[in-house]
């Protein structure tokens, strides 16, 4: 009798054997990151989000325990795959979707700017046969790692249009321009090759459009998915505790183990609350917001615990505690909304004054 492993077991085995030993290299070397990403593709793990949301969240938590850069890169591609799967544009779907699970095609996203208040950074105007796009894209992860990306731009009435773009500096047939910046110099996830882009009079043909979303869609979507980015923070907190535990095993200092035990109990409680709140309508938005802030706070404290337990070595760029501490920084801001920012700061400022 053959026993089939679940995608999560397959992922865990792959991450443990192939990613954990080179997590620090993957953090700053984009070729190592590319190989690790393609390894997920070899196990057909790159469209889990499109196939099964609940399973994907567990995967997201697991992968960020092993490598923040890989977790972050693959999530952009998985977002693109989920959008593709929901698109009514059958031709685009048939062209891309079958190749996404194994990474034969690799797609990023650039639409977090739709959350920004005031004048939309990326604007769209309907023209015959499609849309003309103009503006600035503040974040697109995956330059040279992905071959295209899904761009979100806003029409004058607040409707958002999502369409396919090449992931390289290019000109369209009418002289429109897409100009990418060099990779941003970032403190964490340097290997993910995150860039910005200027878009001038770019023609997005109707056949490259995935879908339109009504005004305020991004706002509602961010509220519905407020826990989504929190699963990264849970995995990052676990990564910090793994380092603390290793230090406890190496050093004869009982407080290391007792600190681990205390934080481990808290992380388990936070995880349980996350998984119990997953279904829509189970927990109010306000309570889910507090849970997200709790996970962000835990990632910060567990990674700080890893630093403290590692001593001066934690200041070395090659120390895992250093990497995980920087990754916690990213999870404090990724997918951030005004509400998430406020909940994060409220939690930080709610402690009583005491020595
Ligand atoms: C390393 C890295 C890689 C990333 N890669 C991608 C990617 O590939 N694709 C992608 O789409 N995104 C990406 N992001 C963006 C990310 O998900 C978040 O959206 C981002 O970190 C939030 O930062 P921001 O500066 O863009 O925030 P903003 O969106 O500018 O602000 C956060 C919140 O604060 C509020 N706010 C901001 N300014 C004001 C103001 N002046 N007045 C009132 N309220 C305000 C906004 O309402 C918003 O909800 C990446 C981020 C990082 C750090």
Q: Which terms would index this structure?
A:
355 residues, alpha+beta, Butyryl-CoA Dehydrogenase, subunit A, domain 2, Butyryl-CoA Dehydrogenase, subunit A, domain 3, 5-stranded antiparallel beta sheet, 13 helices, 9 strands, 52% helix, binds flavin-adenine dinucleotide
Explain how this protein is built.
- This is Acyl-CoA dehydrogenase.
- With 355 residues, the chain is α+β, with helices and mostly antiparallel strands.
- It folds into 3 domains: 7-100, Butyryl-Coa Dehydrogenase, subunit A, domain 1, CATH 1.10.540; 107-214, Butyryl-CoA Dehydrogenase, subunit A, domain 2 (Beta Barrel); 225-348, Butyryl-CoA Dehydrogenase, subunit A, domain 3, CATH 1.20.140.
- It has 13 helices and 9 strands.
- It has helices at 7-19, 23-28, 30-42, 48-51, 53-66, 68-86, 90-100, 217-224, 230-250, 254-276, 285-310, 320-333, 338-348; strands spanning 107-110, 122-127, 130-140, 148-154, 160-166, 170-171, 177-180, 195-205, 209-213.
- Strands 2-3-8-7-6 form a 5-stranded antiparallel sheet, with no helix packed on it. A 4-stranded mixed sheet has the order 1-4-5-9, covered by helices on one side.
- A hairpin with a 2-residue loop joins strand 2 (122-127) and strand 3 (130-140).
- The longest helix has 26 residues, at 285-310.
- It is globular, with a radius of gyration of 21 Å.
- The N and C termini lie far apart (61 Å).
- Flavin-adenine dinucleotide is lined by residues 76, 108-112, 115-117, 138-141, 186, 189, 194, 330, 333-338, 341.
């Amino acid at each position: 009798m053959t026993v089939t492993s679940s995608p999560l077991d397959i992922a865990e085995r792959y991450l443990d054997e192939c990613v954990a030993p080179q997590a620090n290299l993957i953090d700053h070397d984009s070729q190592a990151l590319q190989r690790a990403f393609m390894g997920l593709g070899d196990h057909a793990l790159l469209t889990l989000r499109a196939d099964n949301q609940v399973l994907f969240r567990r995967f997201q938590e697991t992968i960020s325990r092993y490598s923040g850069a890989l977790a972050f890169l693959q999530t952009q591609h998985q977002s693109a795959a989920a959008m593709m799967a929901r698109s009514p544009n059958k031709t685009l779907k048939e062209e891309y979707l079958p190749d996404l699970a194994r990474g034969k095609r690799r797609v990023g996203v650039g639409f977090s700017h739709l959350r920004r208040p005031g004048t939309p950074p990326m604007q769209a105007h309907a023209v015959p046969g499609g849309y003309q796009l103009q503006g600035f894209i503040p974040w697109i992860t995956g330059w040279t790692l992905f071959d295209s990306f899904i761009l979100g731009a806003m029409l004058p009435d607040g409707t958002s249009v999502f369409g396919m773009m090449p992931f390289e500096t290019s000109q369209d047939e009418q002289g429109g321009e897409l100009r990418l910046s060099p990779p941003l110099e970032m403190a964490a996830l340097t290997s993910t090759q995150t860039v910005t882009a200027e878009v001038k009079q770019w023609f997005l043909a109707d056949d490259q459009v995935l879908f339109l979303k009504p005004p305020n869609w991004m706002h509602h979507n961010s509220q519905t998915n407020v826990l989504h980015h929190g699963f990264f923070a849970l995995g990052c907190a676990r990564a910090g505790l793994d380092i603390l535990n290793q230090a406890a095993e190496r050093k004869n200092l009982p407080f290391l183990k007792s600190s681990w035990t205390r934080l481990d109990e808290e992380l388990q409680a936070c995880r349980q609350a996350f998984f119990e709140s997953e279904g829509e309508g189970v927990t109010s938005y306000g309570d889910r917001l507090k849970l997200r802030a709790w996970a962000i706070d835990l990632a910060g404290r567990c990674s700080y615990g890893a630093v403290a337990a590692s001593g001066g070595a934690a200041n070395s760029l090659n120390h895992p505690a250093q990497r995980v501490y920087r990754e916690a920084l990213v999870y404090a801001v990724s997918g951030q909304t005004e509400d998430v920012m406020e909940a994060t700061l409220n939690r930080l400022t709610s402690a009583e004054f005491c020595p």
